[in-house]
Amino acid sequence: MAIKREGRLCSFCGTSGGPGTDVDLVGGLGAQICTSCIDEFHAIVHDEERTSSVRRTMPWDRMSTTELVATLPQILASAEQNVAFAQEWVDMLRERNISWAEIGRVLGVSRQAAWERFAKKSGDKSATA
């Protein structure tokens, strides 16, 4: 199973990107970042005044209530993207014959708990493998 970038969004600005769009995304472990955000963060990191300003307050401290409310759907979309990525990762592990016991062990849960969380969505009904 190949994990694809199609339909992903930038975990920082919420812009949809990936193949078939004009927005390049890079990243891993579920988080994706577009090249525009990389450029913006690079500019901040290499400008002492901007870096100092960013360190003084968190982004949400500078946002209006309207901006905070408008950002909530982006936060949830990013979280859902990460949950979907975890599902894809488990599917890939199962395709490589990694047992539910091993998946549960690394997640700190029982084999059954791992299976209940992930198998029903992937169609893998093998509770004992």
TrEMBL record:
One of its GO terms (molecular function) is protein dimerization activity. SMART domains: zf-C4_ClpX. Residues 7-48 form the ATP-dependent Clp protease ATP-binding subunit ClpX zinc ribbon domain. It comes from the Bacteria. Gene3D superfamilies: ClpX chaperone, C4-type zinc finger domain. This is ATP-dependent Clp protease ATP-binding subunit ClpX zinc ribbon domain-containing protein.
